[in-house]
Amino acid sequence: MGRGLAAAGLVAALAPSGLSQESPDVQHQAAYCTVPDRPIRLCAVITDDGEVVKARAHFRAEGREHFSIVEMELLEDQYCATLPAPRAGRTKAVEYYIQAIDDDYLPQRTVPFLLELQEPEVCGFPPVEYDSARAASITVLATHRRQGDELDDRFVSTGVRFVPKR
C-alpha cells in the first residue's frame, strides 16, 4: 500500500463515525446598490448538517486593502448583520462577502458583492437598516493592524464601536 493511501486509511479510521465533513451552506440574495448615510442590513440563510458556530459579514469601501467584520446574529430563520453607513462623497461602493464556520471548523463564504452607492430614487430596494436600536449598536472588528484605531472615514461612525486588531 502506498504511503498516501496508508495515511488516508489512518485518518479515516480515526475520524468519528456519524460526523459530517460538509461546510455550511450560505444562501444570500445580493443587492447591487445602497444609499449613502444609511446603515446597511445584510441577511443570509445559513444551514449546516451540524451547527453554525460563527457567521460574519466582511466589508470594506471599494478600493481599500483590508476588510472589516461585523458578526451576524440569528434572527428567526436567517443570520443578519448591520454594517455602518457608507459616507456620501467618500466612497462609490461597498464590497462585502458573508462567511460561516460550522462546529467542524469548516468555512464557507459567498463570492464578493459590490453595493454601489446611489440616490434613493435610483436604487429601488436598498438593503438599509430600519431598526434604530441595531443601527445605534454596531460593533466593527478590524482584521489588520494597519486599519488603525478608528473606523474607516468612508463610513459614518455614529453608533459604531470599532475594535482594532492588536
Explain what you see:
By secondary structure, the protein is mainly β. The protein has one domain: Sandwich (Immunoglobulin-like), CATH 2.60.40. It is 10% helix and 38% strand. The protein has helices at 3-14, 132-135, and strands at residues 25-27, 33-34, 40-47, 52-61, 68-71, 73-75, 78-83, 93-102, 107-109, 113-117, 138-142, 160-163. Strands 2, 4, 5, 8, 9, 10, 11 and 12 form an eight-stranded mixed sheet that branches. A four-stranded antiparallel sheet has the order 1-3-7-6, with no helix packed on it. The model is unreliable at 1-17 (pLDDT under 50).
* Cα separation of the termini: 48 Å
Main beta sheet: strand number and arrangement?
A: 8 strands, mixed
What structural class results from the helix and strand content? mainly beta
Fraction in beta strands = 35-45%
Low-confidence stretches: 1-17
CATH superfamily descriptor: Immunoglobulins
From the structure above, extract its key features.
166 residues; mainly beta; Immunoglobulin-like; eight-stranded mixed β-sheet; four-stranded antiparallel β-sheet
